[in-house]
Amino acid sequence: METVKEKSKEILQQQIKDLKEQLDSANSMFEMTTNYMNQMQQDLMESESNLKKANKHLTDSINYARHIQKAFITGNESLQQIIPQSFLFFRPKDILSGDFLWVQQEGADITVAVGDCTGHGVPGAMLTVYMISTLNQIYSEVGNDPALILKKLDEHASGSLNNDKTGVADSAEIALINYNIETGRLVFAGANRPLIRVRNGEAKKIKGSRYILGRQIRRKEDIVNQEVVVEPDDMVYLFSDGFVDQFGGPEKRKYSTKRLKSLLENVSKSSLNNQFRMISAEYDQWMGENQQTDDTIIMGLRI
Question: What DSSP string runs through 92-124?
Fold first, then answer.
């Protein structure tokens, strides 16, 4: 008969054999898992490399698009050459902007438009290029009458951009002035954008017409010219809604037109360079850690 010792030896050998099989299985599973993880890591590295290449290509394309857009939009340097007594505060939300400044001069007449197109980024930028190109064409055809320019621009935008079948509704809100530097006469027309004049530290808001260019809805008034009485040392401001709609402050609220009027009253007597710095500082302080809400532009002109 098999002794107890021999029986125990057989059980022990069987246990050792089972443990060895389990170890071999674990090693095999570990090797498979390691190979799988290595392959995944390699795939992730390749995906990351491809994403970086795609991102670089996209960023390069957007930067080049910005270069093209800058050729259309009047920048601060060009503005200073035409209107030395002026400044431009311009903060695109992204690399490209849906806000724009457009300036033309013929003799003593200076025509200025500040526009806010639908959206921001690439779509907004493409629309600004269209609007500016069309403004140039209209200006060469009909002259510098602000209301007539905006009405013609609306005709172009309504006919060329908006398509009832696609549901696309590209539009723009624009404040436009014509200022004669010899006579001091200033004529304003606005498509859903106002003008603010500050005299002796007191701001007056001149509303534009309730009329959005390129969009048939929300039209309650026709676009009309308004003559704005100005005197030497007055400040005139044109702006998009980006500043007043920026969320920030202690209660995370919109900045509001009321605050902007107060800000412009406070800065209006300062030099144009100081006005730019104070407006920039106020904007940054108000926004704080919040995301920028929209493209922002303010153009200031001293009479």
Answer: -SSSS-SEEEEEEEETTEEEEEEEEESSSHHHH
Q: What is the pLDDT averaged over residues 29-46?
A: 78
Tokens of 258: 């009321």
Q: What are the residues facing 301 on neighbouring strands?
A: 86, 236
Beta partners for 236?
A: 197, 301
**pLDDT tens-digit series, residues 171-224:** 899 999 999 999 999 999 999 999 999 999 999 999 999 998 987 776 778 999
Give the other-Cβ count within 10 Å of 257's Cβ.
Answer: 16
Record the tokens describing residue 106, joined without a space: 């013929």
Question: CA 36, CA 17: separation in Å to the nearest integer?
Answer: 28
Residue 135 near residue 113, CB atoms below 8 Å: yes
Nearest to 128, CA basis, from 213, 224, 59, 37 = 213
Select the CATH number that applies to the domain covering 74-302 from these four: 1.20.140.10, 3.40.50.2300, 3.60.40.10, 3.50.50.60: 3.60.40.10
On whether the CB atoms of residues 67 and 95 are closer than 8 A, the answer is: no
Residue ranges of domains in the chain:
1-72, 74-302
**What does the pLDDT average to over 45-60?**
68
pLDDT tens figures, 16-33: 787 787 777 777 777 787
Strand partners, 238: 195, 299
